[in-house]
Amino acid sequence: MKICLVTPAPAYSKKGNRVTALRWQEILRGLGNKVTVSQKYESGDFDLLIAIHAFRSYSSVRDFTCKFPGRPVVVALAGTDIYDKIHTEPKTIECLEDATVIVALQHMAIRELPARLRKKAVVIHQSALAGNQKVMPLKNSFEVSLLCHLREVKGPFLAARAARLLPDSSLIRITHVGEALSASMKKQAIKEAADNPRYRWLGEVSPGNARRLLKRSRLLVVSSKLEGGANVVSEALVCSVPVLSTRISGSIGMLGEDYAGYFPVGNHRALYKLLTRAESDGSFYRMLKKQCAARALLFRPEEEKKSWKGLLGKLFSNRR
Q1: Are 55 and 85 in contact (CB under 8 A)?
Q2: What Cα–Cα distance (Å) separates residue 39 from each residue in 78, 178, 200?
Q3: CATH class belonging to 142-299
Q4: How many other CB atoms are there within 10 angstroms of residue 264's CB atom?
């Protein structure tokens, strides 16, 4: 089967949409398909179109359905689709109307869809690999990682603000990796690192180095204002690293309703309290690890592969 997989993120990008596209390409090829990844569908004869990001892939979906009426189209919801564009941009809903199947990365996303579209939505959890490399935590600090690009929606300096409230006795250090996507964000990160001894910003690093940082961390902080289903949460879960996250729909869909590590969006004082508790209260920290271990089973590569195999089988058995 020939599949065109469209993502708005360019080939050099390390953003989540591109990471997802490349992982899905590998999975789909492993299932015996020919898969082409591009930013936009322009031409070519394909049996199936998979488009990541409904709003930004609108023209690709429309062009493909016009050229090949009746051929299946899968549209994967991005975070901005779910929590912004489906409420503000009519093209997003039009794109989802054209889709044969809508893929969500966590179950809470489906609740945001209009009722008439929910029946064609499925959840495919993003998998991650822990890898075989053993990485030990730093002995002289309680390292907390922040793996996100410097964008306003990520709340990139919330953890640094929380760390400023910690007592002198605390060993917590925030290590932040991610590209600054504006000159002002870069300037702010450099200043914060200079003024705040508990915070350091390493800029953009390779995926391998980011994974090593995550594996040696005691905690991962997700301070986003919204997420569709963050890759980094999947990675933390399979690496047995507990997560402290804003209480947002995207994280609830991955970590569960009753997870103990949530704090309100934008509330650095609540994050400070969680950081302090995780460092000082062994029973609380062990509870976070236990809850994360239970959720990690959903994000195994074999589960994601099984989901795609089942979806393709359903799409093409219906055509026959």
Answers
A1: yes
A2: 15, 22, 34
A3: alpha beta
A4: 12
CA R_g for the chain:
20
The tens digit of pLDDT for each residue in 259-271 reads 999 999 999 999 9
Options 3.20.20.70, 3.90.870.10, 2.160.10.10, 3.40.50.2000; which CATH number does 2-126+300-319 get? 3.40.50.2000
Give the number of other CB atoms < 10 A from CB of residue 291.
Answer: 19
| CATH 3.40.50.2000 domain extents, the chain | 2-126+300-319, 142-299
Q: Which runs of E-coded beta strand occur in 110-249?
A: 121-123, 142-147, 172-177, 199-203, 219-222, 243-246
- Residue 61 CA to residue 41 CA, distance in Å, equals 8
- Provide, rounded to the nearest whole percent, the portion of the chain with pLDDT above 70: 98
pTM over 0.90: no
Distance of CA 135 to the CA centre of its chain: 23
Cβ pair 225, 213 in contact under 8 A: no
The mean pLDDT value for 272-289 works out to 98
pLDDT at residue 320, rounded to an integer? 45
Cα separation, 223 vs 245, whole angstroms? 6
* Measured CA distances, 226 to 91, 238, 244 (Å): 21, 22, 14
